[in-house]
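tool=predict chain=A
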Amino acid sequence: MPLARVQISQDKAELVKALRTKEDGTGLFLTYADVLTFAAALGFQRKKRIPLGRFSRKDPDAVLQEQFRDRSVIDFIAIAETNDPKILTSDQDADLQRVEIFQEYANGGLEILGQELYGIKNHLERTLLILYSQRQRQQVDTEEFDLDQLF
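tool=predict ok
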């Protein structure tokens, strides 16, 4: 049984291409699979899941699951979303559902990136700022209030 391909929304195709490394050394990620993995993690973290409308049919085309460095990220997001271990079964319906969840979070993450990177020439700097601010938010959320600081 062939694994489902991860589709890219047509309206996000240019952003995905811009984030992929080119011959001139620009871009943040080596592969389209890397772009989608980052975007899906960002979308999942920020709870932004957007169904795909029309798929990109040309550069970039759908990404084979085999091209992902670690396909388990697709599984992790699916299990976290559904809280159902049956999503990890090897049947075709479960595979399609995992991929749909992943690509919708990737689409949401790409929308976030599109807004954050709009008009920015240096995507690397801005992306690092996004990661840094996210880390700061997580630290603030996990810190406990210490009464000793008042005295």
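Residues 10-145 form one domain. The helical segments are 13-19, 32-45, 72-82, 92-117, 123-142.
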